[in-house]
UniProtKB/TrEMBL annotation:
A GO CC term assigned to this protein in UniProt: cytoplasm
Protein's recorded name: tRNA-dihydrouridine synthase
EC class of the enzyme, as a word: oxidoreductase
Family membership: Belongs to the dus family.
Enzyme nomenclature, EC number: 1.3.1.-
Organism listed in the record: Medioppia subpectinata
Source organism, top-level taxon: Eukaryota
Amino acid sequence: MDDNRADNENGSANGDRNQQQEERPEESICFSGKTILAPMVRTSTLPMRLLSLRFGADIVYTEELIDYKLIRCQRVVNPVLGTVDYIDDQAVVVFRTCAEERDRLVLQLGTNDPQRALTAARLVAADVAAIDVNMGCPKSFSIKGGMGSALLTQPDKVYDILRTLVMGTGGKPITAKIRVLPSIEQTLSLVKVIESAGVTALAIHGRTQCERPKDPNRNHYIEAIARTATIPVIANGGSDEIGVHADIKRFRQSTGCSSVMIARAAQKNCSIFMARDELLPMDEVIKQYLELCIDYDNHVSNTFIH
């Protein structure tokens, strides 16, 4: 591996990986024992995040936000909506947040470049609780751009991106989200690289880059990682196993993780986060969701009723 690690504002981030692993930031957000809304494109917008929190989610992730887009944005306080908006040079709101979610919000970055990732992270750091790097998206637009799951086979770049963020964001917790690799051994090897960069937590989707929701989630891979990891591991990919709130506990147990990240099950009905035997009726969920969309001027193209 290249010995020239990314520099931060105070100088080189070089050093032994074992020593660096001990330099994790003091966390203001805890990733252990949590139920989490997953990052979902055009779904994990402000209304969906707030509704999930109100229904009982502990932490919410933004949809993937590409570093190129963020670094072209200006941060604008919106007194009418009570939000902070990141607006690009075409007057498009790329990211909107508010005080209600700030201490429980993780912004997910799409990136393939350490310095560009750092520029984007520093821009938004004051408005989020943590920053996540997307290393699991299997969509073609991510892979062609060298982002998402394209990073899974590039451990040097994975390390450089994460280490640059850990060292350069003033103690802001940094996390990563990955998919499993074809073998447990390959996956464990990558996890060790990620841990050595000093991240605070790791979310793992139990399918490979080529697998789709119809394929079984490799819960035994996640369990093997959770047994050996030195940081909180967040299990993801189990929506087919989660129909009611009680199923979250079963998925947690089957993966050996203390935290669970939910995507499609929450997309179908985000009252899945409520600690009750049955989901809320969809008309009630839709009503509350649309009220938030109106309150926060959510663009119609990002307003989904599933």
